[in-house]
Amino acid sequence: MLTSNSNMTSENAAVGEKMVACEAALPAPARSAPDLVINTLLTLIIIILLAAMWRPVAANGDDQTIFKRIPTQFIAALGDPDASSGTGAETWGLWRVDPGPRGVRLNNFQQLEAAGGVAPAQWEFDRSDWWLEENGLIMEKPTFPLPVGKYIVTGDREAVSMLTIHPADENGVKRWELANGTKLYDVTHLPCRSARYTPAGADNSCSPASAPKQAFRVTPGAPMPPVPGCNKQDYAVLFIIAVPADN
Which residues contact 34 (CB under 8 A, 6 or more apart)? Predict the structure, then answer.
């Protein structure tokens, strides 16, 4: 479990990984009852130590949300990279599983169309709203909007922070906020590039078939390439590694 309102340091993560490795390396319990009790107690001690090691440095005592680790999820975010808070979180999306391995290569777009727009991973291609990632894979759309709540996020670099998505105001606008002055750039995973493509006109010319294949792979941190006939919106990608334990 993680207790927060703060950044969780990479040192915490490294120590936690070492503890998990140590726990996995424990010998199998002996068959005798006394040894079984001893091994059970040792396991409990390791679990307690793990919980303590994963506890991030507290910034203040106002928020004591308990977090639990989850398989990595992925946020598609829009905002000023140098900002620690802002509005517009109602436009942020969520991939609950990594969309990259579920994607379709640009070279296989004709096969995707021949299949009625249904990808091998069973997501449906939308010609009026489609996504590309840095390797030239057509991705499924994220789910919109990102739910209100708190998340532990990282860009898989140095910074780890608590992201809060606030409820919408009377105009439907949602605020977002990162703890301790962490900037959006700090928790952006730079190698993961993603962009949303929508038709710029009514002639149906906005198509993955027109994407410049030679532009891939996109350099970490660089913008995604334009596609003729399309409007393009680049999104930052954040990793979610923990959510509130009562979620």
Answer: none
Question: Would you state the pLDDT for residue 204?
Answer: 84
Distance CA 122, CA 182 (A): 37
Per-domain boundaries in the chain: 2-63, 69-244
What is the DSSP track for 228-247?
TTEEEEEEEEEEEEEEETT-
Q: Which two tokens stand for residue 19?
A: 């503890």
Which residues of the chain register pLDDT less than 70? Answer: 1-62
Give the other-Cβ count within 10 Å of 81's Cβ: 12
Q: Which residues contact 28 (CB under 8 A, 6 or more apart)?
A: none
All residues at 6 or more sequence positions from 145 whose CB lies less than 8 Å from its CB, including other chains: 89, 90, 91, 92, 93, 174
Give residue 198's identity as a one-letter amino acid code.
T
> Helix, strand, or coil here: 96?
coil
Q: Are 142 and 103 in contact (CB under 8 A)?
A: no
- The residue to which tokens 């906005």 are assigned: 206
Contact 174, 87 (CB under 8 A): yes
CB 193 within 8 A of CB 133: yes
User: Which tens digits make up the pLDDT trace of 126-179?
Assistant: 999 999 999 999 999 999 999 999 999 999 999 999 999 999 999 999 999 999
DSSP string for residues in 13-25: HHHHHHHHHHHHT
Task: Judge if pTM exceeds 0.85.
Answer: no
Phi, psi (5° rounding) for residue 156?
60, 35
Tell me which amino acid residue 91 is: T
